[in-house]
Amino acid sequence: MSSSRRLRNNPPVDKYFPNDSLVIGAGVVIFHLATNRVVVCKDTRSGVWFLPKGRKDASEEISITAVREGFEESGYRNRLLPLPLPHLQPRPLETSQPFDVEPLATRLLPVSMHYQYLLFWYAAETLPPSLESSINATTTSTFTPPTPFPDITLAEREKQDRMEGSMYEPKRHEGTGVDADEVFYVGVLMGVEEAVQCLRGSSGDVVKRAWEGVVLRRKMEVESEKNL
């Protein structure tokens, strides 16, 4: 990134929200790794750019919410991307993998005077062509949770999108929205720098953090291969 400026975190707070006053949601930063692009949504009515996000369904895992909302609002199937994120969560002793699926950031938003919105942001990637095709063989515009990111390097994953000398272009599905507003949302793949400029604010900061994680993972995997 040309600028390393980040938003400063707010001071920790102690607030209590009972279940009937809390709305929980998740959003996602979806990368096409092979071309260093990111999915950004546009509301065609207002021209406003945003990252896909939305409320958690009852009894749904929050990480699944992120992937589902990414698909419904942008039209791109995606799966969560493990990254070397700095975080404060304990890692099981038997786990040696340095890459985790954890929120990039969390935001507290007031829905109204009576409801608090708690939003978690995750990093993800577009699906490889083989997985995309297998899901599309059974459904086209319905959300289906994909298999997790496999135990391969990002370089190995990116090769899957370079087919016979050509670059695979992730498929954008039409009609994936589930409410009246989402009919007007269009997902677009653009360069990371351009996305940050379009989004700005906390959403731009989330893209920066996700991209820093991708760049760091690539560097760590290259160094690991050199040491073999």
From TrEMBL:
Domain of life: Eukaryota
Keywords from the UniProt entry: Hydrolase
Protein name (Swiss-Prot/TrEMBL): Nudix hydrolase domain-containing protein
Any matching Pfam family: NUDIX
Sequence ranges assigned to domain Nudix hydrolase in this UniProt record: 21-144
Gene3D superfamilies, per the entry: Nucleoside Triphosphate Pyrophosphohydrolase (3.90.79.10)
A GO molecular-function descriptor: hydrolase activity
Residues annotated as signal peptide: none
InterPro entries linked to this entry: NUDIX_hydrolase-like_dom_sf (IPR015797), NUDIX_hydrolase_CS (IPR020084), NUDIX_hydrolase_dom (IPR000086)
